[in-house]
């Protein structure tokens, strides 16, 4: 492993194989807030799904069904778009934690 690091250092002068554990822990802890956001949106999505089912089964007004259906579709479209953007951003930040050579391979 040391020999590999020395070879990489010869190929790329700015290669630094040394990453402190503190750096990694600080970056990961700053990224860990996403699990709380994910959990909150998951609970809200479940509540919206249950609400839509209740309205579908008990509603006698077509207008309430139409409004809930549109809200339901817009909610999940925004949640999926938001999660996809967040996961890309999260992945890029996780790749920054790794050494450049390893991050480029991934």
Index terms:
single chain, 106 residues, 5 helices, 83% helix
Brief description of this entry?
With 106 residues, this protein is mainly alpha-helical. The protein contains 5 helices and no strands.
Mean pLDDT: 78
Extended strand count = 0
**Tally of alpha and pi helices:** 5
Largest sheet: none
Which percent band covers the strand fraction?
under 5%
State Rg: 23 Å
| Backbone shape | elongated
End-to-end separation: 19 Å
Structural class label: mainly alpha
**Could you state the order of secondary-structure elements as H and E?**
HHHHH
Low-confidence stretches: none
Task: Tell me what you see in this structure.
The protein has 106 residues and is mostly helical. Helices cover 83% and strands 0% of the residues. Helix 2 (21-31) packs antiparallel against helix 4 (62-97) and helix 3 packs antiparallel against helix 4.
SSE diagram, text form:
Blueprint: H1 2-11, H2 21-31, H3 34-58, H4 62-97, H5 100-105
Helix pairs in contact: 2-4, 3-4
């Amino acid at each position: 492993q040391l020999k590999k690091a020395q070879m990489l250092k010869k190929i790329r002068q700015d290669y630094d194989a040394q990453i402190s554990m503190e750096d990694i822990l600080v970056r990961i802890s700053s990224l860990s807030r996403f699990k709380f956001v994910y959990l909150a949106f998951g609970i809200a999505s479940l509540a919206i799904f249950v609400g839509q089912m209740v309205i579908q089964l008990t509603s006698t007004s077509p207008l309430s069904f139409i409004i809930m259906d549109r809200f339901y579709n817009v909610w999940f479209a925004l949640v999926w778009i938001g999660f996809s953007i967040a996961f890309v951003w999260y992945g890029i930040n996780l790749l920054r934690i790794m050494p450049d050579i390893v991050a480029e391979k991934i």
